[in-house]
Sequence to fold (241 residues):
Amino acid sequence: MEEMEVIFRIKRFDGEREYWSNFVIPAKKGMTVLEGLFYVKENYDSSLAFRASCRMGICGSCAIKINGKPKLACETQILHLNSNKIKVEPLDNFKVIKDLITEFEGFFVKHSRVKPYLIRKEDNYAEPVELIQKPSQLSKYYDYSLCIKCGACYSVCPASSSRDDYLGPAAMASAYRFIADSRDEGYKERMEIVCGDCGVWRCHFAGECSEVCPKGVEPAKAIQKLRFKSALYMLRKLFMG
Ligand code: SF4
Ligand code: FES
Fold:
């Protein structure tokens, strides 16, 4: 199919009330949901609020719910959805600011709690130090480094929806990414956070986070690996201090 009229049914929020708006989009081959939203803004309602930046699946800012599933709007082609009605909503588990725009500050604060950077004991960065890695070392964490912080995993996580203090799947995947990095020396301080009350043992292991991740990061797998490490770490701490 090269072109068809599609109805976008968009969930709106104006700061006080929720309501739905319908718009007819002349969808062409290759047109994305994000382009559909821009079409609405330019042709019907300039007040429609949504977030986007790179338009190429890199920045993570356009994640929304499309026909009930979290997806990147810029990477979802309208005609590939095989439906002439498309429901567009903000991500679950995030506070809505306006229309499709959600509050991400808490998500990034949780991410920062796992110290998402290389921790080195001796480096003072005055002298550049080359830290050579073998491909086999890189492969231990590479998949987990692909996260674009879109929040899709967090939006479907039952543990995140029931406990506001759970750090969530993206933060856990990021913790594992650095723990598995041979250059990192922050194992102990990061494990204290991962094993803590807001860490991996809060996960219900629904596995939906890995299903919806647009970058194939598999946070559920990272959490399983972290749980194994966490059990060893706690046993060692118990018996060896
Ligand atoms: S792990 Fe995947 S779904 Fe979660 S924030 Fe990162 S890219 Fe998005
Ligand atoms: S606009 Fe950047 S990921 Fe979609």
